Amino acid sequence: MKLNQFARLTPDHATQVQELAKLGFTTDPTLDLTTLVRTNLPLLFPEAYSPTAKQQALANVAIDAHRTLVDLTQAEVTHISRVEFYAAVLQLLGFEPFTDYPLDDPLAFMAQTQLPTIAEDIDTPAAFLDALYLLLTTRTKHLVNYLDALATRGFFKDFQGDTPRYLFFNGKAQNVFDARQLHREVVWIESDLDTDHDGQRDLLEATIFRPLETDHGLKMPVLFTANPYFHGTNDVDWITHEPSTRVAVKTHSRTKTEVTAAPATPPVLPHHPVNGEAREAEVYADENGIYALNDYFLGRGFVTVYSAGVGTRGSDGVRSTGGQSETDSAVAVIEWLTGARRAFTNRTDGIEIKAWWCNGKVAMTGKSYLGTLAIAAATSGVAGLKTVISESAISSWYDYYRENGLVVAPGGFQGEDADVLAVDTYSRQKTTGDFLRMKPTWDQALAAITAAQDRETGDYTAWWDARNYRNHLANITCDIVSTHGLNDWNVKPKNVIKLWEGLRALPIHKKLFLHQGQHVYVNNVLSLDFTDMMNLWLSYELLDVDNGAPDQLPNVTVQDNVEPETWHTYSDFGRDDDAHQQQRVNLATGTTHTRASFADNATATFSAHHETSDTYELEIVKPDSLYNEDRLWLDLPAFDHQVTLEGTPSVHLRLWIDAPTAILSVRLVDVGPAQRFGPVAKTVEAAGYPLGFDYKTTTILEFAKAAPTASKLITFGHVNVQNQKNAYENVPVTPGEPFTLDFELQPTHLTLPADRHLALIIHGADMAQTHRPTAVTNYHLDLEASTLTLPLRLKA
Amino acid sequence: MKLNQFARLTPDHATQVQELAKLGFTTDPTLDLTTLVRTNLPLLFPEAYSPTAKQQALANVAIDAHRTLVDLTQAEVTHISRVEFYAAVLQLLGFEPFTDYPLDDPLAFMAQTQLPTIAEDIDTPAAFLDALYLLLTTRTKHLVNYLDALATRGFFKDFQGDTPRYLFFNGKAQNVFDARQLHREVVWIESDLDTDHDGQRDLLEATIFRPLETDHGLKMPVLFTANPYFHGTNDVDWITHEPSTRVAVKTHSRTKTEVTAAPATPPVLPHHPVNGEAREAEVYADENGIYALNDYFLGRGFVTVYSAGVGTRGSDGVRSTGGQSETDSAVAVIEWLTGARRAFTNRTDGIEIKAWWCNGKVAMTGKSYLGTLAIAAATSGVAGLKTVISESAISSWYDYYRENGLVVAPGGFQGEDADVLAVDTYSRQKTTGDFLRMKPTWDQALAAITAAQDRETGDYTAWWDARNYRNHLANITCDIVSTHGLNDWNVKPKNVIKLWEGLRALPIHKKLFLHQGQHVYVNNVLSLDFTDMMNLWLSYELLDVDNGAPDQLPNVTVQDNVEPETWHTYSDFGRDDDAHQQQRVNLATGTTHTRASFADNATATFSAHHETSDTYELEIVKPDSLYNEDRLWLDLPAFDHQVTLEGTPSVHLRLWIDAPTAILSVRLVDVGPAQRFGPVAKTVEAAGYPLGFDYKTTTILEFAKAAPTASKLITFGHVNVQNQKNAYENVPVTPGEPFTLDFELQPTHLTLPADRHLALIIHGADMAQTHRPTAVTNYHLDLEASTLTLPLRLKA
Predict the structure, then answer these.
(1) Chain B residues touching residue A237 (CB < 8 angstroms)
(2) In B, which residues are within 8 Å of A53 by CB distance?
(3) Residue B278 main-chain phi, psi, to 5 deg
(4) Which among A160, B31, B303, B516 could bridge B35 via Cys, Cβ 3.0 to 4.6 Å?
(5) Which of A597, A624, A656, A615 is nearest to A767 (CA)?
(6) CB contact under 8 A, A282 and B430
(7) Which of A446, A305, A424 is nearest to A374 (CA)?
């Protein structure tokens, strides 16, 4: 086990002492070591209310085979050895002698687990206080820090007096509020939209979880999650598309101007009149919060807000799958939170309600569509949005449902498209009366999405351009945290890396986390102190704590794919600098052929073997595969040492085919027998991660090695052979005439050990993600005229 | 989906009206239908606090394609058709028109889902109130009843005034208390034991979750779970046994007297002195409750208590794996709860604390070891224990770790034994100081368990007899609810069925639930209203509600293994009466042979194929198996119609072998290609089941059909060929000399469709559960002299 920790600050001794005193520890510099030990150790057992109960607890923690912490508190203490101290510390952190570590050698385990220790034995009062401070900021085996663990056992239960207040320790907001007792409120925010064309401003429902302490004058910041799934989803079987059995020959090539979206002009609409004002809502929020990271911060003085946006249950309007109206929906919530927009306690009476409890600072959080809308809102430059923590997010919807002039489904969701997601999230359907009244309007809006998404050509259009948030990065003024899975084939890594590249020059702070998972949150992964980093970050961003978070947190944190529980930190990702090198590999290298051919009949192979998208994705990357005949497998020369790929590989291919159009796919594969990480993180401890005092818990996970495999997908790419220039211009292909394709694969970061090598698979249709043509197409590659360019990281 | 419901009472109209009035509904008999509709429908939206918000909510529920509940509340109402009413009711229950049912035909869906409906259209005020009452007691799609769902949305949030009180509706305690705010207390109960031989009475830690309403004079009953795992478990790799490679020839045959346990004599010990008294504990309980059923009842006015017993963290003493000291530990908690025993606020000061908030009535709950201790405590006849809800429980530890003179592991836990479980649950190890002080005592106690369990012979001894709770069933005075999985090969069904048979003649109420799962709780299975039944039961047992629970609940409820979501009810299980018949099948029937032989070399087969216990258990029951040579497969004649097995099959086998001893196993298998239930219930909705107002949620599950298989294990049995009479007497076996074995398989309940048939597999060692002998043994069966007796249920 390695408990990496990036969020621990090491202030100077005087600051440490001052912070300890704030917690109630005795720090008087005139006291001797004996007194400090005797007065402070009992405080580490907040569940014990009486001196006797504390003695009982102290007696359970051994410092060696014969003595416990009780002995320390009853003797004259002039010296505590590191071995004694950490023998006890590990027990306090949740580890067990005999099971986890030898009682007489805790330091080896501390080192192996990457837990910090003091450098010297404790001989002075000051050294004891340093050791105590370090202990409080050290990670337990239950994801939280030791002070957080104490808080879940009641350390702060009597902290609040008549005037509620925050407590910061080691730069982070502490669990001094009561997450159990919340105002759960629903309000309706007036937008500038009229997406259902009824001449009225669309009202947007928002749900607020607000700690009671706000009633006593404390203003709190907000963690806001724009979550289209908040009120549930609809069955989409009826609208999910069958992959087409043909690839269209394109006849209409577009220009850059044609595919540039015009800015939306908001309609001019009357305001809903205000007839009164209320301080409390009149509807109880019956949905629960959905993100443990948000819940974790409730007890630390953050209000959490969820809003699902236009077209969802309780709100007006229709869905647009990433359109401007959904960005505006999220922005409207922030504007209300910061006092720039009105909201009402119900839909009709005009009773206004203000976010009077908000300190005016907002962060957005969420994964996937939720994180996507956080990025979307950030590109508005809305005031009050200080940062977004955007996980596994889409930065351009074309990169979610399309690729280089092809319909390419998100991994795991063959046949999904923008219209499918619109139906999925149109949760107004769940309130039947409302749904029936809206049916004609919604049917029309949905039909427009189905037409505009254009499954025939797969080309980039103005409609997709309006859903490319990267067009507006220059507007961003808030700081950005992104996380993404290096094996996320649902929202593919291109989304986060192109965002990262687009943000590089902006005068904002930005942080990037890349993990070995697929499409998942990373807040409950044991080897990383992600939540704690976000505490440092949010305390800085939303509560003005001068904790140096932007400098403390690494710019780029990447999980290693070979060594478990190992996270690398870098100043940037895949940059064109002297830490990186582009290496071009001629595809004829290592083969005796200059040309190679294959006939793509994968659709038939797929059907004959009753394959599913899931089995196909495993099968197509096997060295010996059902699809041997439907692909080229090119083993690349092995490196003679371990290398790290980092960035965006690309290919330059020279080929001809026997048809006027085709799908071409490439996959870069890590080859060689090895135990690699499995697709899903393993449960370390169900309900092991406490989110507050007497409050919810969640599961602790870790990415872990799975059964050995011969190969694993690193990255891939798809192109329509007619899209030789870009995703909107079409170049006619003449059967038998050679042409050139240049395109990028998904960005990656991969450690390739010296005993493994790369292979490039070139094939036609991708059964899991593209159309599935039934006509057999022959591909002839000119290997000597074709290259793969690999981005290498040369140094840390 | 079928939402079976057994706990709904149908009181007379006057009672229904009276109960509705208690909830705050308008029931004045002088009012007309229009007024009743107008005043009562808005109450179904407790999350809406204002009239406008309620109108908003009413407008979302359609009664047909054009009208909603708002229209009903605004018109003169003289008639509401069943179709209109149930079109709306299904939406209230969480179903969706278009997705789940056609809006214009709700009644077909109601019938299919087994939801109750009123018989006639609503034309009178009385009919409306009847319909309203029925609605409130109808199941939603989220496991709870509709009134419970209203409670989770705040229906009762303002119910409590200055004097806390219970509310019962339809015979069940309602969610009128606040489960979020609890006293979490730890106390130490003084036992009569001294299992660590220090001359002091062992103090037993107990954890209490107590609703704050008890502070205001309300006395509450207790749901008590004796849970040895409550403070965690220890790593047992080092003590888990390797299955032996030989089967011992037994030399010491015991008599009945020798294997009869002497009653334990409690030591005479001084009491811990009492030096004072406190009303509140001085230690906060930092462990969370572990059973959703318990948590569910907190908001309904039940205190929950957990205690782990002797040898667990915080308690004195040593583990005994089901010994008298563990029974006494559980009983001691009940005695304290009912005022018959003292407890202290800490281990040393003598400050007594009474369970002053307890109404003197206790139920025990829990699964596996937990449910086992509930049965153990029941056999003490302790006063105040009114009922136990014992799930998947052991009724004799010999039936858990042994069988017919063999060491037979619990399924999934090859190599586990009593000493392994003792180490596993000796959580004093987690408090290192305490552990070190106790080490010599514990090492000695553990060595005694290892010796006494006797893995050499596997015979029944006085040590095992002391762990056979069925010896003391006559002492039971409380009512018993048992649940058990028909596919539970961990705690095998014999445990519950032999208990059931032993209880049959006792003047207590007893209820039996048999489900298609393995070793699992059944409280969150969607197709059964188990929690609601337990609410009826516990309201009757612990709160003196005169709800007729013993008559309302079926005696025996069995889940069908063919039809999903189908539960049969019976007055008894496997009884020797005219509903049942024993059918004897000669094993030569259907074969052309009168004899059959096999050579058991399964251990070699097992090793050669790198099998695990899990893969072995699937492989051995396949018609064509790796173990073909190591077994006999006897297809039994097919029935020409569907039959139901119910009870305990047995075999009478005539055979000889070429060794002085051997293991013999038989498996009864359901044969024929079919989709059968998978081993694990499927998640219907994660976090879909609300356990109270603004409180925890848990997952909703359902047993569901899995991929088709050719066969599935129904039941099995194992015997040591030397144990021809019973589990303690040994009969020498002479190689080549025939002998007879008569033994029972595990009890079962199985529907066998007419297109499937039974097969009996006869084999030697069971790689997953018995020793794994390496010597090859030859078995020669005299089929004509051998029979299988099948218990059939002939009628309902």
Answers:
(1) none
(2) 282-283, 345-346
(3) -130, 155
(4) B31
(5) A615
(6) no
(7) A305
SS3 A38: helix
B158 inside 8 A of chain A by CB: no
CB-based contact B725:B459 (threshold 8 Å)? no
Nearest of B647, B681, B678, B671 to residue B558 by alpha carbon: B647
A99/B234 CB distance under 8 A: yes
Banded pLDDT at A606 (limits 50, 70, 90):
very high
Task: Give the tens place of pLDDT for each residue, A488-541.
Answer: 999 999 999 999 999 999 999 999 999 999 999 999 999 999 999 999 999 999
Q: Is the pTM of this model over 0.90?
A: yes
Selecting among B142, B231, B484, B519, the annotated active-site residue is B519
Q: For residues B732 and B646, is the Cβ–Cβ distance under 8 A?
A: no
What pLDDT was estimated at residue B592? 80
Nearest to A697 among B53, B99, B288 (CB): B288
> Does the beta-carbon distance from A61 to B283 stay under 8 Å?
no
B402-403 and B385-391 as β-strands: parallel, antiparallel, unpaired? unpaired
Q: Which of the following is catalytic: B315, B329, B368, B380?
A: B368
Q: What are phi and psi of B480, to 5 degrees?
A: -125, 125
What secondary structure, in 3-state letters, does B726-778 show?
CCCCCCCCCCCCCEEEEEECCCEEEEECCCCEEEEEEECCCCCCCCCCCCCEE
Tell me, yes or no, if B488 is annotated catalytic.
yes
Residues of chain B positioned with their CB less than 8 A from the CB of A70: 433
- Does A257 lie at the interface with B, CB-CB under 8 angstroms? no
Please write the tens of the pLDDT for every residue from B667-712.
Answer: 999 999 999 999 999 999 999 999 999 999 999 999 999 999 999 9
A488 catalytic? Reply is yes
CB atoms within 10 A of CB B595: 15
Please give the DSSP secondary-structure letter assigned to residue B42.
Answer: G
Task: Catalytic residue, from A194, A328, A399, A488: name it.
Answer: A488
Q: How far apart are the CA of A488 and the nearest CA of chain B, in angstroms?
A: 23
Beta B220-226 vs B358-367: how paired, if at all?
parallel
Cα dihedral B306/B307/B313/B319 (nearest 10): -140
Is B192 catalytic? The answer is: no
User: Which residues of chain A are within 8 Å of residue B285 when distances are taken between CB atoms?
Assistant: 47
> pLDDT-based confidence at B225, cuts 50/70/90?
very high
* Token code pair at residue B520: 């699992």
pLDDT digits (tens, 9 = 90+) for B463-505: 999 999 999 999 999 999 999 999 999 999 999 999 999 999 9
Could you report the per-residue pLDDT of B550-595, keeping only the tens digit for each?
A: 999 999 999 999 999 999 999 999 998 889 999 999 999 877 889 9
Alpha carbon of B715 to those of A337, B667, B740, B756, B771: distances in Å?
63, 6, 21, 16, 19
Q: What is the pLDDT of residue A707?
A: 93
Q: Phi/psi of residue B632, each to 5°?
A: -105, 135
B5-30 pLDDT, tens digit per residue, is 999 999 999 999 999 999 999 999 89
Token pair for B154: 């705040």
Tell me if A434 and B99 make a contact (CB, 8 A cut-off): no
Q: Which of B438, B430, B285 is nearest to A94 (CA)?
A: B430
- Quote the tokens at residue B164: 């806390």
Report the alpha-carbon distance of residue B573 to residue A218 in Å, rounded.
63
**Identified catalytic residue from A519, A568, A580, A763:** A519
- Among B181, B286, B346, whose Cβ lies nearest the Cβ of A53? B346
Neighbours of B710 (CB within 10 A): 14
Interface check for B433 against chain A (CB to CB < 8 A): the answer is yes
Mean pLDDT of A319-348: 98
Among the partner-chain residues B53, B60, B349, the one whose CB lies closest to the CB of A433 is B60
Q: Which of A346, A431, A436 sits opposite B53 (nearest CB)?
A: A346
ipTM: 0.94
Which chain A residues are within 8 Å of B436, Cβ to Cβ? 62, 65-66
